[in-house]
């Protein structure tokens, strides 16, 4: 049995910070994605070494107490048997205690932006890498087509005039402005209240904006061959994906997860109870494959709740078949590149990881006996040991290149990986507890996932606040929000950033002004 020892003596806070930064840099994770961090911006939030980190509060220890199965510390596993029988069981399934070094997958591609943007590149230039003029022109055509057919069916609208490209850009600009100022309604721009914005309200009247909003479409009509529920937005999602693929090459380490798309706190505080009940009935789930070294979202996958049957989201959202399907869709363009994919418990499974390995996609995932598909895993590793454990102790079993790790840190955490060698050591650095030994896979998982959490904390603030009732419109505005965040990441990695140095909020304001055709080039923040 491979065992890790207990934690060493505590270090001084400064020494811990330097050690954390050193290991953080060794994992090739960039920091300060939005240019808005404080003085301690180069520290990984996972390591919890800065004074303003989460571990500075006593809640950090409470977070650590959460166990994978929700059982109390030292709980007796169900159906215990002699250790010899359990080991025999593991050997029968091909799992063994004999560990061997597994070389890391060689990364074949370069990473980063695929084109060099000029020093004078504007926010609009970066945004149009993903939403170019031809896409906007198609929105103009489809909106006018829909308005014409709508009026043929329900009666003419004398106030309607065909929308132009300039008006469509202004329409998008007004919508995007809600991601910066977080107003409860986009119509607040023309109001006399707190969220009014006279500087942009004069570009278009509220009446004209409401008319465009009424008829706005990306695809006006369903073709006879179309059966997909997202037919009104699928061409846009395909175009957006093409833009993501052509503008950026992700790093080797990536994460599959559901990004934060919760309701804005302002909306929650101001909407009625009836409206709130309606908003909770979101009819889709949004998943992404995200570069964990930059935060760039490489791919979007939308799963619709298409009914109450066995294939509906409600029936499948906690079952392996849905999440396996999600993972395969998100990684359909990732084969043959030796990517390392980090996954949560709902996706992690031996069968999926083995299937991905055949496609030269390697994985590292957190495992849960409640949420994960544990088929093919040895029961002895899924049950907590009877003897008390020390922080940093772990057990490992191997099957081929696959390692199953059970690591203890105020609770039992299990990981499945074929991307990291089980004999390589890592370390978790805590401000209060010092260094806690662990396998390298555990450290890598924690570091990359915590970076994504930090990214989510920032980028979720910049989702467009407009909350339509139609599913395709909800997906559309979420996709636009992701495109803007990706555009900002490319801006941060370009030479143009060293000239203007916009924060994420300033970048959004600049984009709104350019879409509205305003001449002012200086951000207001």
Walk me through this protein's architecture.
The longest helix is centred in the first third of the chain and has 22 residues, at 133-154. A hairpin with a 2-residue loop joins strand 8 (394-399) and strand 9 (402-408). With 525 residues, the chain is an alpha+beta fold. The chain has 19 helices and twelve strands. Helices cover 38% and strands 13% of the residues. Strands 5-4-3-6-7-10-9-8 form an eight-stranded mixed β-sheet, with helices on both faces. A two-stranded antiparallel sheet has the order 1-2. Mean pLDDT is 79; it is low at 1-7, 9-14, 23-82 and 264-268. The N and C termini lie far apart (57 Å). InterPro entries: PGBD (IPR029526), PGBD5 (IPR042423). Residues 48-59 have a biased composition (Low complexity). Residues 91-100 have a biased composition (Basic and acidic residues). This is PiggyBac transposable element derived 5. One of its GO terms (molecular function) is transposase activity.
Write the layout of secondary structure elements.
Blueprint: H1 13-26, H2 59-64, H3 83-92, E1 112-113, H4 123-127, H5 133-154, H6 165-181, H7 198-201, H8 206-215, H9 234-247, E2 248-249, E3 253-257, H10 265-270, H11 273-279, E4 284-291, E5 297-304, H12 313-316, H13 320-330, E6 339-343, H14 350-358, E7 361-367, H15 379-382, E8 394-399, E9 402-408, E10 412-417, E11 425-430, E12 434-439, H16 440-459, H17 471-492, H18 497-500, H19 504-516
Parallel strand pairs: 3-6, 6-7
Antiparallel strand pairs: 1-2, 3-4, 4-5, 7-10, 8-9, 9-10, 11-12
């Amino acid at each position: 049995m491979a065992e890790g020892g207990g934690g060493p003596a505590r270090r001084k806070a400064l020494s811990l910070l330097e050690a954390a930064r050193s290991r953080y840099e060794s994992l090739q994770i960039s920091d300060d994605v939005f240019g808005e961090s404080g003085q301690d911006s180069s520290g990984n939030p996972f390591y919890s070494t800065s004074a303003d980190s989460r571990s500075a509060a006593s809640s950090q220890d409470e977070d650590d107490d959460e166990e994978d199965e929700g059982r109390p510390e030292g709980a007796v596993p169900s159906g215990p048997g002699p250790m010899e029988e359990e080991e025999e069981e593991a050997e029968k399934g091909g799992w063994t205690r004999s560990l061997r070094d597994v070389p890391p997958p060689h990364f074949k591609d370069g990473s980063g932006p695929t084109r060099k943007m000029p020093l004078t590149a504007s926010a609009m230039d970066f945004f149009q890498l993903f939403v170019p003029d031809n896409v906007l022109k198609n929105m103009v055509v489809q909106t006018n087509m829909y308005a014409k057919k709508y009026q043929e069916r329900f009666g003419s609208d004398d106030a309607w005039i065909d929308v132009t490209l300039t008006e469509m850009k202004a329409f998008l600009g007004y919508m995007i402005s809600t991601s910066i100022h977080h107003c409860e309604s986009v119509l607040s721009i023309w109001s006399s209240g707190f969220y009014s914005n006279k500087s942009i309200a004069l570009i278009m009247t509220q009446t004209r904006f409401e008319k465009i909003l009424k008829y706005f479409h990306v695809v006006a009509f369903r073709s006879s061959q179309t059966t997909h529920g997202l037919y009104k937005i699928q061409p846009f999602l395909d175009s957006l994906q093409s833009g993501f693929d052509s503008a950026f090459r992700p790093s080797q380490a990536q994460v599959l997860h559901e990004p934060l798309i919760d309701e804005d706190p302002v909306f929650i505080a101001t909407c009625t109870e009836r409206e709130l009940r309606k908003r909770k009935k979101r009819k889709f789930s949004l998943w992404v494959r995200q570069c964990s070294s930059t935060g760039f979202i490489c791919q979007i996958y939308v799963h619709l709740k298409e009914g109450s049957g066995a294939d509906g989201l409600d029936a499948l959202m906690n079952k392996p078949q849905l999440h396996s399907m999600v993972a395969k869709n998100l990684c359909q363009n990732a084969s043959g590149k030796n990517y390392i994919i980090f996954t949560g418990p709902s996706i992690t499974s031996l069968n999926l990881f083995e299937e991905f390995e055949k496609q030269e996609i390697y994985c590292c995932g957190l495992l849960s006996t409640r949420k994960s598909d544990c088929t093919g895993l040895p029961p002895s590793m899924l049950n907590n040991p009877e003897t008390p454990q020390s922080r940093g102790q772990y057990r490992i079993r191997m099957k081929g290149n696959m390692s199953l790790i059970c690591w203890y840190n105020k609770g039992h955490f299990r990981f499945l990986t074929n991307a990291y060698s089980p004999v390589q050591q890592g370390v978790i650095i805590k401000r209060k507890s010092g260094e806690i030994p662990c396998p390298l896979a555990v450290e890598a998982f924690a570091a990359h996932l915590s970076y994504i959490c930090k990214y989510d904390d920032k980028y979720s603030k910049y989702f467009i606040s407009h909350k339509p009732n139609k599913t395709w419109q909800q997906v559309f505005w979420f996709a636009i929000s992701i495109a803007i965040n990706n555009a900002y990441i490319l801006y941060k990695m370009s030479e143009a950033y060293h000239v203007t140095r916009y924060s994420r909020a300033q970048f959004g304001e600049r984009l709104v002004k350019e879409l509205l055709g305003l001449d002012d080039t200086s951000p207001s923040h």
